[in-house]
Amino acid sequence: MLATxxxxxxxxSTRGLLSLDDGxxxxxxxxxxxxxxxxxxxxxxxxxxxxxxxxxxxxNGANGASNGHANGNNTADAPRRLDLHALRQKxxxxxxxxxxxxxxxVEQTHIADAEAFVEAVMAAAYxxxxxxxxxxxxxxxxxxxxxxxxxxxxxxxxILEAAGCLIELQETQYRNHAEEIAKTMELKYExxxxxxxxxxxxxxxxxxxGLAERPDGxxxxxxxxxxxxxxxxxxxxxxxxxxxxxxxxxLAALNVIKGQHLPxxxxxxxxxxxxxxxxxxxxxxxxMMVDLDxxxxxxRWMGDTRFIYGYVRGVVQSKNYKMRMRFDVTNTxxxxxxxxxxxxxxxxxxxxxxxxxxxxxxxxxxxxTASASSKAVVNGNSSSSSEDDGPIAPHVPLQPNDSWVxxxxxxxxxxxxxQSTSPPTTPGDKMGGxxxxxxxxxxxxxxxxxxxxxxxxxxxVLPGSGEIDMVVQRVISRKEFIxxxxxxxxGDGYWxxxxxxxxLRAFTVENLDKExxxxxxxxxxxxxxxxxxxxxxxxxxxLLSLDGRFTHGLFVSGTNKxxxxxxxxxx
Length: 571
Ligand SMILES: Nc1ncnc2c1ncn2[C@@H]1O[C@H](COP(=O)(O)OP(=O)(O)OP(=O)(O)O)[C@@H](O)[C@H]1O
Known about the structure:
Strand content: 25-35%
Bound molecules: adenosine-5'-triphosphate
CATH topology of the domain at 276-340 and 400-534: Tumour Suppressor Smad4
CATH class of the domain at 276-340 and 400-534: Mainly Beta
Protein name: Sphingoid long chain base kinase 4
Number of helices: 14
GO biological process, one term: sphingosine biosynthetic process
Region (Disordered): 58-77, 338-433
Distance between the termini: 59 Å
CATH architecture of the domain at 276-340 and 400-534: Sandwich
Structural class: alpha+beta
Domain DAGKc: 130-273
Pfam families: DAGK_cat (PF00781)
């Protein structure tokens, strides 16, 4: 529907004009002396939260009328109040967003135009999603720098309320409380459109594990989750909003309001011998990378800088780890994997036709509602709804067969292979250049590109592809490890020949040196390291993302931070 411009009365009784043109909402103040109009608001529709025309029966005044008092004569032909709520950028280059609310009055003669205008604004502001979401907001008061409560009160709630969201807020009271909530809450699917987590990655992991344990686990896991980054490790937000906007709370709140469904793979991890299952959405680490998280908790005040400290400390200790891994490999060819990721990024950037939305790497028709989301994900598996309501499949111990490859690190701690003898990785080499007996510094498996703002560890991840990306890092000199920090946020380490890179459907790991290393980490949480089996659960969970995808790093968009193509080094 085309909306005409709507004449209005502004707060100081001056004349104004509302206009919707070329993807922007403008509020103009008209002058009576022939001067050009003054632009009070000019907002891209992406940042518009709500337009609303007050009920005709009880008109409110323009400025200050939000106190609820009627403005003068309460008659049927009195002017009606129109509210416009949006996020505002300070200037075109600014990432900071502020909530702005404008109230105007519409005279009776323009009410029909104003109604059409409001409808057109809402349609343009929510082209592929449904407004007024019902939000379960979980707040971890102690995560990160401990400021979640005030951030939620001062920034998040005003924005969600301005968009007309219905919010149920729950503070987590103790460790694993979020998991309990997700496991036991009454989940009315038509009611909870999104679980928002004012926390770090830990609470997201807890929520996913709680949902996974429910008798209706399959369906429950697809409840969209949207992070509000108030923890110290907020990798999920880096992947959704980019390095610069990782901690942009207003942008994250906008994602709660308007984010599109992004189906993601999960990993199911069977811990042995206990036979306990956990699910992971982010990372699985053994070796040096485990130390990034553990032993640095007391440095929370540093924010995510504490992980750089953990890395340097790990390099200084320079241990190697003894283990046996079995991989169900789908790809090890670095050039082919980089090309596939770049092709997918290019496809993501192809403009959508009206009415289309992006669902991971597929384009789907129609708007997103809670039930539409279920369908979108279910369509991928073409399973019936009753089958889909049940628990997730049990994780039984995996039985690697002959097609799996076995990667074994050295048994002699002093032995290091001369790296100059590294065989080049060739297409079809399922070992990815690894030679059994090499010294292993760490392995790190991940399901989204960034594990922190400083490290794009898996730059060629294809979300929803049913694969987990695995880096196996040989022991290198301390100097080389420190040099690897440069460019790590852009995925430059990917081309390092001492980093073997695999795409896997599943893998198993056995600890061959239980004295040397006692724990490994899942999404930043520590677990005893004996043996564990990992299987990918394709598209098992859903995040919200403003563009329906993860952010594109420089690695896949073609250039590195030095402005050069991020390509394999020349021989
Ligand atoms: N009220 C509470 N008291 C103590 N621990 C809590 C409380 N609420 C949540 N937790 C725990 O806090 C941990 C950190 O969660 P969160 O995801 O917010 O942050 P993080 O970025 O992963 O870690 P960090 O605490 O370093 O910011 C989780 O293990 C969670 O169980």
